[in-house]
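Protein modeling request. Please complete all fields; requests missing the sequence field cannot be processed.
Requester role: graduate student
Desired output: 3D structure, token encoding
Chains: 1
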Amino acid sequence: MLSTNGRTRQLNGTCASSVDMELFLHYSLIPSLFIILVLSFLQRREQHRQRGDTCYLLGNHFGIIIPLDFMGTFRNRWSYGMAFGATANKVMFLFSEGYQPLQVPQWAQAFVLLIGGIEVGLSHFPFFACLSSEFQLVSSILGFSYSLIWFAVTVHHITQCPHGQFVGRYETIMFYWPSLLCLAFLLGRFLHMFVKSLRVYLGWELPTEEKPFLEVHQAKHVKKLLRKSPRQEKKKSWFQTRIYEWDPCFHFPSRMIGTTVLAFICLYLFTAIEFCVFVYVRDELDLFEGELESYIASVNQTGTLTPVILQVKELMNVTKGVWVVTILPAFLTCVSYLFHILACYRKHMRRLWAGDKHFLPLKFHHPSSSESVVAIARYSGWQIAYILWGYLIIHVVQSLCGLAIMYGLVLPIIHNQGLEMLRGLGIGTLTISTVLGLMMLQVWIATSFFLQPKMGTADTQKPLALNNRKAFHNFNYFLFFYNVLLGLGACLSRLLISCILGAWLIARIDRTIMQSGYEGADMGYSAWIGMLYVDHYHTNPVLVSFCHILITGHRERRLQRAIKYWYLNQSACPRVSARSRTRWLLLQTLINNPRLVTLRKSTAGYGSQEFTQILLTCSEH
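Delivered output (621 residues):
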């Protein structure tokens, strides 16, 4: 009789949903393009077309719409983060290279993946465009409808085949619930936008101000810098001192929040996929173990291969147990990396704002502008890929450490070899302690006999000046041959520590694992540095505040000038049109600068040729 899990797998082996999610991804481009065209039609272009341009008939419609500002967006950050989270399943689909709509050679797979990335981005473009659009009444309706379509199709796909072939019951729900949660959040967000914009349209509520050039937290940061006497800080709690302290003068941009949310969901999905693969491999190993037991029973446990087979069975059982136990520690390690990267981003940005670049390698003090611009586009995708691959590598390293502990400590006790294990552990500990003790003895001898006394009572250590030189030369000669052997162990320990730290920190894109002088070979760290510089140059609170002061002053001067001209137009003097005044000022400018006449466009407007001829005549006289 089949078990419940086996019956579930057998049932879902023939379960075929009527909705193919990959095919729906292709068809979702139709409403996506429609929404993009509607929002583009509503978007006004800043530059008006002239009569000679081919796009003149479009007027000032069909402006370029952006999904979100990757550098200067500090509002609706969690909405954008949930929009990124809704793409998690498709991102993992691309990460596994399961997107194969075309049969192309191996060398052209990069182009296929590029097309797949563009298609996924285009299918989810309406989520971001509707959140960032100025026309919230229309965009909220379109965004709600599009999110509802994705939510309904996903729920229909789950209800038809809720179970899977690997985990068993509710496997499909396990993979799709993060996307459903993000889509439900977007539905609520678009509904809130619709209610708010409808109240504004009906006049029941005042319209909210447009996106300010200077954010509130940036202004607080500048005020904090200009404050003469710093305020007395309150006593920090344990959480603020050891883990994280919230700063009202600093906000993470939407790019960082969206990257963290998407990386967390992708990490969860990657862990779930890895567990499904483990279940499949475990079942295959169980079948292989059954065959080994059959062989042992057939030879009545007297065959020559029986001890080897028993050791192989033990290795498989230990490996399966260690792999399962280390799933959670590896997952939590990568999750802690995500939060630690955010903390490092804030710390590095503060240092750059203060003009401190000492934490960067020397070659990154003046990075290339083009590479920095590319880095801002690479960072989010690379951060997610580094986290996923880092989880797998960390899991393997932790499993190897678990195997070492099992075979070094646990299994000897199980096999009644505890005394031998303790004897070997004691001998190894004594050997390492002896080697370290001899190294410390060398340092003590050098401090006591081969360095001159301190020059002052306040000195923390002796000066680097030799004493007892003859004894020092004999000391070096006799330890020369011993240090050759000691250097072999030091070299192996260097290699082991480098491998462990490199594998442990592979997911940390904010920290290079290369040696000093070779940091440029770490492409992930280069992307991190370039991203920091782009954010530093475009979101520096002091720079933004300075530009805000200039823009505000310019607007005030224009307003005062407009008020003055309004009073002039209301006087009894003959009224002069703005066009005539502009053309008169243009005439004066070109008469005083005759060389500018030849640089004027031939399609500058009606009568421009006659106007240019008059200017040439005036310049000759």
